[in-house]
């Protein structure tokens, strides 16, 4: 499930466009997993910082900006963070796992060589 696709249908298309712009400007500064979802720090247009939360199922979300406080709908910061989270998940499930498997095999070889 992609968080961005779930959240984008719950808000307006101009917010989606502004979120894509934030992603292009590399404004999503920080993302970590916490509280059953993701917490992100997004830099706003006038230098302010917003803290975004999105649960794993995208049913719960929040942002510290006025847009979210007023409308309680996904704002551009939430959407930008969701976009980056989706990208991170795709990246994690493909090449790094195969690399990890290769390095484990390599460790086995080295270990058996030491024993012999
Ligand atoms: Zn916001």
Q: Which labels suit this protein?
A:
21% strand; 116 residues; binds zinc ion; alpha+beta; four-stranded antiparallel beta sheet
Mind explaining what this structure looks like?
Strands 1-2-3-4 form a four-stranded antiparallel beta sheet. Helix 2 crosses helix 4. The model is unreliable at 96-116 (pLDDT under 50). It is of the alpha+beta class and 116 residues long. The chain starts with a helix and ends with a helix. The longest helix is centred in the last third of the chain and has 21 residues, at 95-115. It has one domain (3-115). A hairpin with a 5-residue loop joins strand 3 (49-55) and strand 4. It has helices spanning 3-8, 13-24, 66-71, 76-93, 95-115; strands spanning 28-34, 37-43, 49-55, 61-63. Helix content is 54%, strand content 21%. Keywords: Metal-binding, Zinc, Zinc-finger. Residues 50-86 form the SWIM-type domain. Pfam families: SWIM. InterPro entries: Znf_SWIM (IPR007527).
Q: What is this structure's SSE topology?
A:
Layout: H1 3-8, H2 13-24, E1 28-34, E2 37-43, E3 49-55, E4 61-63, H3 66-71, H4 76-93, H5 95-115
Antiparallel strand pairs: 1-2, 2-3, 3-4
Helix pairs in contact: 2-4
The structure holds zinc ion.
Work out the strand percent.
15-25%
Named once each, the bound ligands are: zinc ion
Q: What is the overall shape?
A: globular
Number of strands: 4
Can you give me a brief rundown of this structure?
By secondary structure, this protein is an alpha+beta fold. It has helices at residues 3-8, 13-24, 66-71, 76-93, 95-115, and strands spanning 28-34, 37-43, 49-55, 61-63.
